[in-house]
Each structure stands twice: as C-alpha cells, then as structure tokens.
Design goal:
The protein has 109 residues and is α/β, with parallel strands linked by helices. It has a single domain, classed as Rossmann fold (3-Layer(aba) Sandwich), CATH 3.40.50. Helix content is 32%, strand content 20%. It is built from four helices and four strands, in the order E-H-E-H-E-H-E-H. It has a four-stranded parallel beta sheet with strand order 2-1-3-4, sandwiched between helices. Helix 1 links the parallel strand 1 and strand 2. The longest helix has 15 residues, at 16-30. The protein starts with a strand and ends in an 8-residue tail after the last helix. 16% of the residues are buried.
Length: 109
C-alpha cells in the first residue's frame, strides 16, 4: 500500500502538519509494509506527483485549486481523505485560545 500526505503548513508556521502528516507518515513507513511520503501543498499543485498512490491524505485543503486534482486522483481509483484540526470559527469564549483564533487577537499579560 502507498499513502501520500499533503501538508498545509509553511515551514515558518510548522505545527499541525507535524502531527497530521509527518508523524503518521513516518509511522507507516516503519511498518515496512506501507510506503508513505509527505509533500507540501505547493509542491503538490505545481509538480507532477507520481501516480499509483492508494490513499492521499489532505491536511485541510478541500478548496480550489486542490479540488480539481483530488477529482483526477479519485478518477484513477485513489482514495482521498481530508484531515482537519481546529474549527477556529466555533471555538467558544471559555476556551483560552478564543481571542487568538476567533477574534484574531493576542492577549498579552
């Protein structure tokens, strides 16, 4: 089996991509039974990615122009999974990161 992860974070903000893409990919590779690779979203859009992936896991990228590429892979029989982390618009006010994410403010003490 071959699994391709498409990470969303830029290098200067690398956070969830480590947990949603890089760590799972490395764990799959350690099994010796699954080949896994991680590519950045920009590379996925501009460079031809080799075919033959059984599963492609997208980190929160279900938007244009990714949708067209997703459809291409699905037409070839590739299973597509989308992973999401926090829904910032729904973080309630009692959560400490509410101001940072919901209102885009950083509280300084």
């Amino acid at each position: 089996m071959r699994v391709l992860f498409i990470e969303a974070d830029e290098e200067n903000e690398l956070s969830t991509s480590v947990y949603l893409c890089r760590i799972p990919s490395a764990a799959l590779n350690r099994t010796g039974k699954i080949l896994s690779r991680v590519v950045h979203r920009n590379q996925f859009l501009k460079d031809p990615i080799e075919r033959g992936w059984d599963i492609i896991v997208f980190e929160r990228l279900l938007m244009a122009p990714f949708v067209e590429k997703i459809k291409e892979y699905q037409a070839m029989g590739t299973k597509v999974i989308a992973r999401f982390d926090d829904n910032y618009a729904l973080i309630p006010s009692y959560v400490s990161s509410h101001l940072l994410w919901r209102r885009n403010l950083l509280v300084r003490e």
